[in-house]
Specification:
By secondary structure, the chain is α/β, with parallel strands linked by helices. It has a single domain, classed as Spore Coat Polysaccharide Biosynthesis Protein SpsA, Chain A (Alpha-Beta Complex). It is about 40% helix and about 15% strand. It has helices at about 15-25, 45-50, 70-80, 100-110, 130-145, 175-185, 210-235; strands at about 5-10, 30-40, 60, 85, 115, 125, 155-160, 190-195, 195. A seven-stranded mixed sheet has the order 3-2-1-4-7-5-8, with helices on both faces. A two-stranded parallel sheet has the order 6-9. Strand 1 (about 5-10), helix 1 (about 15-25) and strand 2 (about 30-40) form a beta-alpha-beta unit. The radius of gyration is 17 Å and the shape is globular.
């Protein structure tokens, strides 16, 4: 299979119902599947995916309880059948039409990891306002010593599945792209511009719990990176 699109969900039935025609249209050019990783959504998200049937190309990975976005993506990595794995939000803020620009550099060998970026030429951030925008900028600032990508907070990316074999992923919170970049060290990384738009349905899951989880996560990545650097230097 060419690719798997991983959609982590919690109460996103209305949004993915609206998103499906656009996503299916883009994926018609590939041997592809859509893998919905759902955390027991009470709004019937899982039942909706099951109702599509195997011929739809949509598949469900159902999890017990609300376990979080980052771990949902890791479970999606394990269950995916595609050679290229695309991760995107299910709320419509990540346009499916950007997927070919993420996938083709990996399939051609031009990149090992592609990131949809709001902060390269042609990208824009229309979906965040006020406090949420400040939180995003602050989180990106904290990540600067770990990577030179311009939009490390992006949750829209594609990766060659072979890259994921380089490390055991152990994310906390909701920023899985940064975990892959730091621990798996894909080279080269290509940032692709996209326009981050307001969600088409539902409400944001970002709250204090997710913010504190990110702080713990980035602290763990700093410890892992610099402890690893110290071990490497001591063996030279």
């Amino acid at each position: 299979m060419d690719l798997t699109v991983i959609l982590p969900t919690y109460n996103e039935r209305e949004a993915i119902t609206a998103l499906r025609p656009r996503l299916d249209a883009v994926l018609s050019a590939y041997r592809a599947e859509v893998l919905v990783v759902d955390d027991s959504s009470p709004d019937g998200t899982a039942d909706w995916v099951r109702s599509l049937g195997p011929a739809s190309g949509w598949r469900l990975h159902s999890r017990s309880g609300r376990q979080g976005l980052a771990s949902a993506v890791v479970d999606g990595f394990r269950s995916a059948r595609g050679e290229v794995l695309v991760v995107m939000d299910a709320d419509g803020s990540h346009p499916p039409e950007t997927i070919p620009r993420l996938v083709e550099p990996i399939r051609s060998g031009a990149a090992a990891f592609t990131l949809a970026s709001r902060f390269v030429e042609g990208g824009r951030d229309e979906g965040l306002h006020g406090v949420r925008r400040l939180i995003s900028w602050g989180a990106a600032y904290l990540a600067r010593p770990l990577t030179d990508v311009k939009d490390p907070m992006s949750g829209f990316f594609a990766v060659d599945r072979g890259v994921l074999q380089r490390a055991d992923l152990a994310p906390i919170g909701y920023k899985i792209a940064l975990e892959v970049i730091v621990r798996c060290r894909p080279v080269p990384i290509l940032e692709v511009p996209f326009i981050f738009t307001p969600r088409i349905a539902g409400t944001s899951k970002l709250g204090l719990r997710q913010i504190l989880g990110y702080v713990r996560h980035i602290g763990r990545l700093y410890a892992w990176r610099f402890a690893g650097a110290g071990r490497a230097s001591s063996t030279r």
